[in-house]
Amino acid sequence: MPIARPEGDYAITRMYSGPDDAWHLELDVVADQRTLVIAIVPDEDPAREPTVCFNPRGRDGDIPFEVMRWFMNQVEGKVSVCRAWMQLRPDLVKAIHRLRQEYVGAIDDDDFPDELAKLRITVPEDDLPAVLAAAFGRNPDGTTTTDTVQAPRPANNQGHRT
After folding, report:
1. Which of 1, 78, 106, 139 has a CA that sits 20 to 30 A from residue 147's CA?
2. Where is the composition biased (Polar residues) (predicted)?
């Protein structure tokens, strides 16, 4: 469902591209049904940076400053939600990336206790909530987090990069 700008001339369409492991946000001109700008926000690979590209096959056109600001604010919001875990310490990012790749973001209830035991060996206890929330959307007790879009926050700011 596109997000329309209040004036109605522009809209943003958000979609997830599985093959890219990235969110795509497209700024469209509503009247022409034409895409002007595409933002790509990778959410699985910390090595890939978000990018913005203008439609190379599209017609040239001016984009009003306020429209571009609105679009980039939406992109910034998606980046902060999808990539928050990538701002943790490198060792935690590496652990989360491995878990997300291995379990594709979801873990069976039966597998959770064994993986938690393994994590407790390598991840400090204070950092477990952030790692589990980012990797699986779970709490250390195995329950699901109620708001998986919230940025993971290690206890006492101990997990953030220095």
Report:
1. 1
2. 141-162
Same domain, 52 and 106: no
pLDDT in tens, 88-118: 999 999 999 999 888 887 888 899 999 999 9
Q: Is the pLDDT of residue 159 over 60?
A: no
How many separate domains does the chain show?
2
Q: Which of 33, 49, 82 is the last residue of a domain?
A: 82
Are the C-beta atoms of 19 and 36 separated by less than 8 Å? no
For residue 114, the enclosing domain spans: 88-157
Q: Are 39 and 50 in contact (CB under 8 A)?
A: yes
Same domain, 14 and 32: yes
For the chain, percent of residues with pLDDT exceeding 90: 54
**Mean pLDDT of all residues in the chain?**
85
Residue 54 has pLDDT above 50, yes or no: yes
Q: Which residues contact 124 (CB under 8 A, 6 or more apart)?
A: 158
Q: What span, in angstroms and rounded, lies between the C-alpha atoms of 161 and 62? A: 40
φ, ψ for residue 117 (rounded to 5)? -60, -40
- Pairing mode, if any, of strands 34-42 and 51-54? antiparallel
